[in-house]
Amino acid sequence: MTDSPEIIEVDRDRLWSSLEQLARIGAYDDEDAGTVGVRRLALTDEDLAGRRLVLEWFEDAGLSVRYDRMGNVYARRPGLDDRLAPVRIGSHLDTVITGGRFDGALGVLGGLEVVRALNDAGVTTQRPLEIVIFTDEEGVRFETVTLGSSVAAGRIPLEQARALTDRDGVTVGEELDRHGFTDGDPVPAPEPYAYLECHIEQGPVLAAEELQVGLVTGIFAITWKEVVFTGVAAHAGTTPYELRHNAGLAAALVTVALHEMVRSGRYGDMRATAGRVEQQPNATNVVPGSALMTIDMRCSDAGHMAAAQEALDDAIHRAAEEAKVAVSVRVTARTPPVEFDPEVRTALAKSASNLGLSSREMISGAAHDAGEMAAVGPAGMVFVPGLHDGISHNAREWSTPEACADGVAVLLRAACELAGT
Ligand code: GLV
Ligand code: MN
Ligand code: MN
Ligand code: MN
User: Fold this and answer.
1) Angle at alpha carbon of residue 408, lines to 5 and 187, rounded to 5°
2) Interface predicted TM-score of the whole assembly (ipTM), two decimals
3) Ligand 1 atom closest to the CA of 138, numbered from 1
4) Per the annotation, does 245 bind a ligand?
5) pLDDT band at 183 (very low <50, low <70, confident <90, very high)
6) Mutational test site, ligand 1, from 142, 368, 372, 383, max ligand atoms within 8 Å of CB
7) What fold, for 5-219+338-419?
8) Which residues line ligand 1 (CB under 6 A)?
9) Is 393 known to sit in a ligand binding site?
10) pLDDT in tens, 268-298
11) Above pLDDT 70, what percent of the chain?
12) Which ligand is nearest to the Cα of residue 392, counting in written order?
């Protein structure tokens, strides 16, 4: 029996300073946001530079590092009984194009801080601990969300992930080979005893209610579609309306249909977004000849998602008919709603209450690696509040040293309870 977790303290300033140092890698000036953001798209040189810095910290903390063929990194702290399944703590280091410094990084560096705090206290847990960096959580570059963790969970085969391409035609496989991940262990790695993730909320609720942490009950189901309308580029002044094949019109009709679906209330807590619309030739005096749009739909209920998918497919085909264009549709991501494990949730809730932190339960509208991990073992998450109305996927994403340390303190206690001290 070693020291009780009561006396193990998170070092708030060390955690904050690590977040700051990592944020310098991929830092960019965001003129619209009026501040500096972070851009480390998955498997780019910036993403790998970020990992290299964190790997140095892992090694300094005495962790032994291995990676799998998807480039997911597992940094291990042995347990007193090292044959036991590990407790894993993880998240991602890749960001969206307009990223902040907390989304993902807090989960990984929070895991590192758990290890550093245990090292300082001289405490070894019964079970090993593993800090995980999942490859490409954001799905921005290769258009599939939580890619690395879905391969680790066995939901997407490695070969299918390797074949995905970015907009320049570069494949995931080429990037994994370029960065030397091809020599990694086979995936998936063995199932953990439990998986924990600390993440910035990415929404306004905790700050508005002046709460210190969020206890996450589950994650919305997600469907992503890529829709391509193909019409005929033609003169905007001379082409009679009834002779047009206007691909841009079809995309616009689908955007409006999505809005009406959500506003109808028929699909529960559904949120729908047409985040990317690219029409060609994109000129004032030319009827759009083609339009590519991506659609992101999320809600908490599988039945509502199934009904919304049907309604969306109908809307897409009606739009194509109305605009007299051809259409092709591809599903690029589909994840079921996630419910986190009751025991892991209890461990996190107990940690928060023992620390005297105010909290509430909440569901996540954002995807997380914990969602994929929930399919292979007990998993749970804790959220910390963000400032600026919780804005995220924006350079203005922000939190405070106290808030981050609170979330990681919850992580530390729950990890000690689950791994045994
Ligand atoms: C990624 O963070 C997502 O929720 O799409
Ligand atoms: Mn994230
Ligand atoms: Mn994100
Ligand atoms: Mn994400």
Assistant:
1) 100
2) 0.94
3) 1
4) no
5) confident
6) 368
7) Aminopeptidase (3.40.630)
8) 138, 145, 366-367
9) yes
10) 999 999 999 999 999 999 999 999 999 999 9
11) 98
12) 3
Number of H helices, E strands in the chain: 12, 17
Task: Look up residue 379 and give its amino acid.
Answer: A
Average pLDDT score, the chain: 96
What distance in angstroms lies between residue 227's CA and the mean position of ligand 2's atoms? 25
Structure tokens given for 214: 């969020």
Q: What is the pTM of this model?
A: 0.93
Q: What is the mean pLDDT of residues 10-39?
A: 97
DSSP 212: S
Assess contact for 359 and 352: CB atoms under 8 A: yes
Domain ranges of the chain: 5-219+338-419, 221-335
39 CA distance to ligand 2 middle (Å): 13
Determine the atom of ligand 1 nearest the C-alpha atom of 367: 4
Secondary structure (3-state) at 40: coil
Instruction: Please tell me the number of the ligand nearest to residue 92's CA.
Output: 2
d(CA 320, ligand 3 centre) in Å: 32
221-335 to CATH, choices 3.40.50.300, 3.30.70.360, 2.40.30.170, 3.40.50.2300: 3.30.70.360
Are the C-beta atoms of 136 and 40 separated by less than 8 Å?
Answer: no
- Per-residue buried b or exposed e for 171-208, using 16+ beta carbons within 10 Å of the residue's own CB: ebbebbeebebeebeebbbebbbbbbbbbbbbbeebbe
Q: Where are any strands of DSSP class E within 46-96?
A: 64-67, 73-77, 87-92
Take residue 105 and report the two structure tokens written for it. Answer: 């990084």
Cα–ligand 4 centroid distance for 93 (angstroms)? 10
In one-letter notation, the amino acid at residue 238 is T
* Spacing, Cα 155 to ligand 2 middle (Å): 19
User: pLDDT tens for residues 225-234?
Assistant: 999 999 999 9
- HSE of 295 in the Cβ direction (CA atoms, 13 Å)? 29
The answer to whether the annotation marks 235 as part of a ligand binding site is no
- Alpha carbons within 13 angstroms on the beta-carbon side of residue 54 total 36
